[in-house]
Amino acid sequence: MALYAELHRHLGGSVVPRVLWRYFQRSDADLAGRFPEYAEFEEFYTKPRNTLDEYLELHTMVEGVQTSQTLPYFIYRLIRGAYIFENLAYLELRYTPFLRTSDKLSQTERIDRMAEIVDIVGIASQVKEYPIVTSQILCMHSRLPYEVNKAIVDLAAQKRQYVCAIDLAGGDAHYADRLDEFIELYAYARSLGLNTTGHLYETTEGCYPELLPYLMRIGHGIQIPLQYPELLGELASSGACLEVCPTTYLKTGNLQDIRQLKVVFDRCFAAGVDIAICTDNAGLHNVRLPFEYENLLTYDIIGFEELQACQNAAFRHAFAWPYEQPPALLLNGLFQTATPDLADVDLPELELVHLQETRH
């Protein structure tokens, strides 16, 4: 039964190790030769890295094989796993479309091909046997030129049937020299009526308060409650939501112990700042969303009440969820409508008592 919303998942990091390894075995002789056995590939692909930049290098391995021809293959398996194993009712996939085009083309030609990529992802995400509400977030990138990033914003505005927001990715430590440029692009996106999120305050080097007024959600944002809790009141007033991805911070070396997140959750709850719990790169981590929930509970970082609040916040802040309520409440309404009141059913008295006791 699909119940959950995933607001922060990268297309490049969403492919689980087994699916990616099988693809290499069938289609990429070089990588198949490098990793002839699955166990060694899984160990390489999912092991922690020392820094965020080192971690992000893994995306290039997947971006190179996620082409217009192969994207439907990967997305079908992604949607199937999300529905069957994660109970997802809603999924936002984020990626940089420019990086799914051939590097043999000119920059102008690659920009022109981005619309085709968005269409392919949009169509491939609609899998009838696994009904999940899906949408795309297009990522500007800290290492792409202004012209490409502006074209990504324009494309998001043109493809609203598939795209719900824009993002900025590529490692938040790399924004400083181009901060005015990114502020301009976010202001432009807001002027077009686009929703916005951004990788920000993930690392101690990626803290830019100048960008906060332009963001409706913050990708990660954990350094705000950890290092700058005075900003939480401003976030609460603006209604911003943090997209917290617990396993990521252990894989990138940003945190040494998952229990350090207790401060993040406690301070956000106290200040009235919403948190959506996410996976970020479920494939790179070999971790699914319910496991993120379980981990937080196991380590006493949050309780069940706080977990429910985060799950509800995810639907409340979902850019393309088409209903006013999360699916659990919608299902409750359906069950209440479908189940007759036993007092109105003409049953022998003893049988009625038995059914009432069974229900309670």
TrEMBL record:
| Cofactor dependency | Zn(2+)
Q: What is its EC number?
A: 3.5.4.4
Regions crossing the membrane: none
Output the CDD domains linked to this UniProt entry: ADA_AMPD (cd00443)
Q: Which residues form the Adenosine deaminase domain?
A: 5-320
Mind telling me which InterPro entries this protein's record contains?
Answer: A_deaminase_dom, Ado/ade_deaminase, Metal_Hydrolase
Keywords of the record, alphabetical order, are: Hydrolase, Metal-binding, Zinc
Tell me the domain of life.
Bacteria
Pfam families (UniProt xref): A_deaminase
Family assignment? Belongs to the metallo-dependent hydrolases superfamily. Adenosine and AMP deaminases family.
Cited PANTHER family: ADENOSINE DEAMINASE (PTHR11409:SF43)
Q: What is this protein called?
A: adenosine deaminase
Source organism of this protein record: Floridaenema fluviatile BLCC-F154
